[in-house]
Design a protein that fits this description.
heterodimer; B: mainly alpha
Chain lengths: ~280, ~325
Amino acid sequence: MIRTLQRFTPAGWFCIAVILLLFGVALFAPVLAPHDPMETDPIRRLQSPAGYPLGCDQLGQCIWSRLIHGARLSLMIGFAARFAALLIGLGIGLAAGYYGGWLDWVLMRTVDIFLAFPSLLLAIAISMVLGHGLTTVILAIAIVGWAETARIIRSAAMELRSAEFVLASRAMGASDIRIILTHILPNCLPLVTVIFAMGMATAILSEASLSFLGLGADPSLPTWGGMVSMGKDYLWIKPALSLWPGLCIALTVIVFNVLGDELRDVFDPGRKGNWA
Amino acid sequence: MLEYTLRRLVGTAPVIFGILLIAFVVLYLVPGDPAATLAGPRASPEDIARISKEMGLDRPLPERFVTYLGRMVRGDLGTSVVNDRPVLDSILEKLPYTLKLAMMAMAFSILIGLAAGIISATHRGGMVDRMTTLFAVTGISVPVFLSGLILLYVFAGKLKWFPTSAFGAEQSLWPMMLPAFTLGVRSGAFLARIVRSSLIEVLNQDYIRTARAKGLSPARILVRHALANALIPIITVVALDFSSFLNGSVIVETIFEVPGLGRFAMDAILKRDYPVIQGVVLFSALIFVFGNLLIDLAYAWINPRIREEMASGKA
């Protein structure tokens, strides 16, 4: 474990630090934010009164407080969506890769179908069926994201299926479920962490895109994508309204992407260079 | 080759069927009665029932699905409930804008991706390589609505080099530059990674050393020997990106007011014009599937080894 941790480069440690910081901000948002993120006041509209570090938005809400609460929503939605996508992807990928045959064929064609839809449009269509709301956004991102995971896990499971320790275990009479849970799944775990880190980046980006188009969670909630979208109408007067939340999204997505790259190198030290 | 083509076509059929099925189910599950929507708020129940009958909504579900499949096979994507126009007509009308945007974005992407990828592969491990890595990670991670808004603010707003809206882009390429660049940077950043890794792999091969030993110029080695052999993964990424651009980037087209497919989809979503949304989603998915099919066929045509592997059922 410690040997593995030592393989992280400074960039990797930096990303881990930023991610921990983001989670800290998300966790303690109500304490850290100086104001109620949804408290409006027409007098403060687009002004920068004392005590408001980044000024106020078009409704007089404290931008700084909204950014802090935005971290909470972005990470929560990203984490939940990614977790759901991972569970579906793992289940389907393991089943397809381990059993093979017609089951594999049917499951992989389903994956092909889901990958064929443009992801943003599919997410939009799903959110229309389910109606607006936080749960909808999470589900939409999960339904769009599971297919890629299933495909990667499936090829890993296919390779492991004929590994010697699996054959030995089967010869000793272990059931399929037991083999999958005690041999195949644990050997997929490094891969799973890589997929999860990269997937967090994609999920946060998708949530922001949906909110930007006004199809995400309730627009009055302080989501980063929603803030960029609202600020867009005031682009020529006060570009900072869009810039700050936009930078928050970019930074969060960058650190998760780099962490994913790093994790891949950490678990696969034979590979040279930090690019796939 | 013919046998391979047929095999691939047959393999695609279930995927297309699945896409049609999902699009049908999604439209069916959308809350609200389409006949009531079409009839308007002041329609009597009898009117709604009549429209429902006309639209075939009173038939059993499997029968409706078969009718729907029949329409799709004939290329009838339905009619808009907002303006009563056939969806396919509107799509074909918007497509040229999106096509122009896609082609220009592609040009930017290839330019940026090849340049950055080649530079970092030939300067591997150095400062330049690190800078390009940083550019690539940033390019992939920055949401297009942020880069788009920044470009719009700086180059259209402050410097006034470009118009803020791409409406009226029929005549010139100029108004399309910013949206195309926004899309192109993102996929160019991704392409740079692919170019770099596939070039590095090729540059380690024996025949490159041989070419060097023969005294060929570095530029010639890079282009004729290295790049030519690193081309397959590069072409894959470029082709996949192109088919995703063709779907029209909803976000970029919204920011820069490009009257293409993406914006068309967005308008339909805001107006809850379900047949249009279904039509656009279907159209995009089918483009993606056939695009992939073409890429695969092109590989098999270029490289006979792939054909044989496919025939023996390995891939």
